[in-house]
Structure formats: structure tokens, C-alpha cells
Queue: 2 jobs
Job 1
Amino acid sequence: MSIYRNSIWFLKGLREYTKGGYVKAAKNFDPTDIEVDASKRNFMVTGANSGIGRSTALELAKRGGTVHLVCRSAERGKEAQEAIIKETKNDKVHLHLVDMSQPKEILKFTTQFVESGAPLDTLVNNAGTMVNQRETTDDKLEKNFATNTLGTYILSTELIPALEKSKCRPRIVTVSSGGMLVMKLDSNDLQFEQVRNFDGTFAYAQNKRQQVVMVRRWALQYPNISFSSMHPGWADTPAVQNSMPDFHRRMQDKLRTPEQGADTIVWLCLSEKALKCPNGSFFQDRVVVSEHLPLAHTRSSDADELQLISRLEEMTKTFKNQL
Ligand SMILES: NC(=O)c1ccc[n+]([C@@H]2O[C@H](COP(=O)([O-])OP(=O)(O)OC[C@H]3O[C@@H](n4cnc5c(N)ncnc54)[C@H](OP(=O)(O)O)[C@@H]3O)[C@@H](O)[C@H]2O)c1
């Protein structure tokens, strides 16, 4: 990550990613875009027990939608499910326990979900992590990569058969991060085996870049589905408190609420305007924004992007064979 890229990015963040940035951007929002009756729509939100994902699930439930919460903790998931049902009086809120860093768990879940014939119109890939020390899962996968990239890839691609049956235009919304703007895709070292000193922020930013590339590639591969990636801004959530304590302490007063962070996700899930934007775009505050900072040299080649997809596909096959 170059000093130039980081400095430009941080100044941009102070202007745009903060609470102040949200309030400024929100002056151009049309509130009617998300005043939608979602009672016939079916949503799935990962990491729905906390922060931005929980706010998203609550907003979708408020509009009458069926909402599948995908969480890793039974206790935290149940608490969120009960609170959302209580607040919205919508009992079509279902809990599924899936650890997004465990490919075989995801595959078992998606197989059951697709075979059940349960309808699905919109998937929100929100679950995300920033693990600062190098940790590996039982499958010997680096934990940030397993959760943010491979988990997102497997869940999305395996749910496509369910989404393709949707009676409206199906959507997949992936919560990336503006942090990816400082990072060029590296599809050779997906699990950070070649880096000398492991750095969680670096791994996270690379994963978030990978998500944006995956989304753009999926949009080409599955034109009948609407794909978007987005940056929620800097929001005050447990992830920021726990993984970036210094940043949280310094920026606390400027951070967005989880609701403000969730706004563009809700808009991407519900609005008709979102469907008119180019498929596979990256969004911030309800508008398409560039995936690159000026002069940052972060564009990747077709070959590198295809290599990422084919590595993820190979890994998915390997885990399917282990079931
Ligand atoms: N907040 C920000 O400023 C910001 C900025 C840019 C991008 N984002 C992105 O926004 C998304 C939501 O994060 P947040 O800020 O709302 O943080 P959060 O409140 O900590 O929520 C993260 C959610 O992801 C879940 N999760 C993490 N690892 C998981 C796993 N292996 N399996 C299943 N679920 C898992 C967490 O579950 P547990 O509760 O069980 O841990 C939690 O529900 C993330 O993708 C994050 O990268 C956030």
C-alpha cells in the first residue's frame, strides 16, 4: 500500500465516509426509493445479528419482507431474531446457523436451502471480519480470506439456482469496503503465504478488493441477476471497535450509525433505481462510484481476475468432494 494511496484515501474518507459525509450525501436521497412494500419478497442477510447487517435485516423486516438471518452464533442470532420480530411485528424472520469461514458448513446449508425450494429474491453478503493475527481454520484456510472471500463466493454461487427462480429480478448485494481502494488485486497469494509480516488490515483490504472483482465478474456471467458491491462508510460497530481500536478511539465522534451504514444496502435491495445502474457496479451513498482512486494503479488485468475466479471455483470443488 503506497503512502500516496493511503493519504488520498484517508482525506477522501474524512470528507465522505463519516457521519458528516452521510448527512451531505443524504440531501440528494429520494426517501420514496425505499418506501416499498416488501411483503412478497424474500431476503437473506449474512452477519445479521450485529451492526450494519442487523440494521439491514431490521429495515427489510419493517417493510414486511421474509428475512433469513445467517449467523454463526446461536445465542447472538436468536437474540437478533427475537428483537427484530418484536420491533417489526413481522414473524417471517428466520435464523440459520452458518459459520462463513467454514466452506463445508456453507455447502451443507446451501444444498438444504436450495433443495427445500424456499424462495429467495435477494442475498446480502454482509458478514465480514478483520483478524489481525494470522489464524487458520480447521480447513487450514487463512481466516480473513475464508470468511470474506471464499465464504462469500461459495454462498453466492451456490444460491444462484434459488435466486434464478425469483419472480422479480434477483439481486446480490455484497458489502465490501472503501478500504479496498488502496489495494490492487493479488490473485497469486490469496492466503497471504508470501507476505513477510502478516497484517490484518492489508488482508482485509485485499479481500474487499477481491469481493469487488468477484461482483463485476458475476455480473458478466449471470446477466439475469443484479449484482452490486458497496461501501457503507465508516460506521460505529463491534467490528470497528474490536479490530481497529485506535481508529475507533480517534474517529468515534465522526463515525456513522449502523443505520446510516446500512442505508445504501437497503436501497440496493429495494429500489427500482438501483436496477437501472450498470450491473456489477460499486456504490457509495446510493450512487455508483469508481472502484479506483485517481493515479493509484490498482486496476487488474482480465487474466488476474479470471485467475481469482478459477482459484475460488477450484477450492469450492475441492470442498464439495470432501462432503
Ligand atoms: N463498520 C464499518 O465502518 C465498515 C466499513 C466498511 C465495510 N464494513 C463491512 O460491513 C460488514 C458488516 O460489518 P459491521 O461493521 O456491521 O461489523 P459487525 O457489527 O461486527 O458485524 C459483522 C457481522 O459479521 C459476522 N461474522 C463475522 N465472521 C463471521 C463468520 N465466520 N460467520 C458468520 N458470520 C460472521 C459477525 O458475527 P458475530 O457477531 O458472531 O461476530 C457479525 O454479525 C462487514 O463486511 C465489514 O467488512 C464495515
Job 2
Amino acid sequence: MISIGAPYVTKDGGCARLNSRVSIDGYESVVWCEVDGKYSPFLCEERSDAFLLGFLPYAMQFRHDIQCDAPVTKRLREQLEECFVLPYCTVNPMTYKPRIFCEVADEVTHGGRGIGTGVSCGVDSLHVFATHPEITHGCVFNMFVRNHVRDEETRRMLWRNMRIRARRFCDEIGVELVEVDTNFDKGILPDLKYEYHVTYANLFAIFALQKLFSVYYIASGYGADQLTLNTSIDEDCALYDHILLPAVSLSKIMIRLWGTERRIDKVKMLVNYPPAMHHLNVCWETECDGKNCTHRCGKCKRTLLELEALDAVDKFADVFDVEWYKSHRREYMLEYYSGVRRCEVYAMELQPLLHHKFKMLCLGDRLWIYLHYWGMAAIVSILRNRFIRNLWHFVRDKILHRRKNA
Ligand SMILES: [Zn+2]
């Protein structure tokens, strides 16, 4: 059983926190969500909605029921159970359908007119800003700073970089930045895994501030053809955002999924959106300066290939090392060629736009690409060959046998 205590607000040093004492099979912890003191009136202590949404995937995965001391919004509970949990558990019969014990109440009345979205400065996030000039609040939540990074110092550095980047972007386009710190993902539960529950984490923070927003956009990380309900609860929940988000959308706070088009179409929009040219950040590397690595991670390489396909690499000289790109172009083309051979989604999207550019490469570069790709493929194929593998095992056993007898 997951017991969620009634939420309460505390204030300290110019900050305000929404807290709840959460107990899971005797393991108890205070879970909190912290914002600047000026947002204190928008923290929702009247309902358990935020905490219910935050712990729902944990309950479904580890077979817990949920008990809330404070009321849950009636419409939220009904929609969640009928429009999400029931269909999800029907499609995935091994997943537990938690029972929710709580009182219900009407939606909290509030005058919040904020229109919000996250500011990661990635392609999906900037695409939401480019298509919604009416957005009033950009948000950063301290939950997505490289989930696999466990050492505190690196996490602090990544959180700082994320805030600096978001602040610069929001200042340029003139929207308010809301920074939300939390302990939700910092080991409050021994087996709480965050990697695949990003949407629930988003909803936890959004509903903690539910009196601030009238609309909140969540950027889709997947194209419409990839969305599905048929996926395990410990897989990426963004795959079923199209079912989950309408189920948590209420009359006073609408949660909308945005941007289910192809990634290349989003990038096409960003090449005509000047703020993206100064702030786009897609890098997977944990760079200490918070900039794109340009050539070490696959995400940077692929984004540069997308810009190449749209003849827009030079426009992004502020955020990528364009000189490096130009002097190592064939390495990026090798990435593209490998993607096409493996039928990867990003490469197939790029093919109609990049194919002629690949054909225009000089003979030397093309030969280099073919040699690298097929050379590597040949090595992999040789290593997989049964005769070679058996020969290697025979030689290795002989060597070990001799060492033993020596
Ligand atoms: Zn990178």
C-alpha cells in the first residue's frame, strides 16, 4: 500500500515547498516540490492529485494500492481509472490495476491563466514554443538531469546548466521561467526508476502547481505512427502519452500532447525560428559547459545531418561547432549511410533530402565511407562466423590448458 499524507506548504528562505509524507510498506519519506516563494499561492495543497499521478506507475509496476489522506479531484480520478488504467491494464493484463482509496472533490477553483510547457531547449521543446507564441511560462523540473547520473556533483552541474540555458531562452522570447526543484527522484525509494516515467514526473510537478496553469503543453518525443498502448509499464511511457494525457486533462487545467509529426518536420520549422539558432541543445554528453558536443554523441550528429538536409547548418553556428562539422563532413555522412543500411527511423526520414548530397560527395569520401562501413560489417560478420568462433575457442582452451600445466 502506498499512503499519501495530506499535502502541506512550507516556506523557507524565499522558497515555498509542497510536501507530503509518503509511506510505502513501512518505508516513509517526505516528498517535496520546491518553487520560488512568489509561486506559493499556486501550490495545490487542497488535493492529492500531484502525488497520486507521481506514484501511479510505481503502484502499477510493483502491485500497490494507493490511499490518499486529502481528496483527489473527482473528474481526475474517474478519467484516470476509466480512460487510462482500465484500457491500459486490459491491453497489458500482467500490469496491476491499483485500487485508489480516497475522498473525491470538485476541481480546485483558481484564477491561474498561465500557459506552460517545458524548456529543455531540445527539438521537441523548441518546436512547442515555435508553434505557440501565446505561451506565458517555461518550466524546468529537476527530475530530468540525466537519470543515469548518480553522483550528486554531476547532477548539480547538469541542473545548473539546464536552468542557465532555460533562463537565457526565456529571457530572449520574453516568457516567465518557473524552476521546480524536488527530491522525487533522489532515492526516496530504493527501487524508484525514473528513466521511463518521465510523463508521470512531469504531471507530478504540473499538478503541484495546478493553480498556475490553464493549459500545459507536453512535447511528444514520438511520431504518431510510433504511439501505442501496447507497451510494458517499465518501458518509455511517452509511447502512450496520447492516451494518458487526455485522461488527466481537466476543465481548469488542460494537458495537451503536442508535436507528433516527424522530427525532420519539426527541425524544418526551427530553421526559421531565430531563438532556436541561439539556444538549441540536443546533446547527450554531460559537458561541463552545457553546450552541444557536435561530434561525440549520436544526437548531435543526427541533428547536424538534419540541418544539412535542410541547408541550414550555418544558421546554427552559435550552438554547434560548424567548422568542425565542415572539416569532418564525411564522418557524419558515414553515420547517415550506416543509418540507412540499418533502416533507422531518422535516416529513412532524411533519405529523400540527403540522398542526392551523398551522391555528390567526392569519390574519395564515398570510398572512405564504404570502406569504413563494409570493413566494420566484415569484421562483425567474421567474428560471428561459427568456424572462426570455434577456432578461437579451440586456441583459447589450448592456451589456458598449457598455462595450467606450466
Ligand atoms: Zn552531443
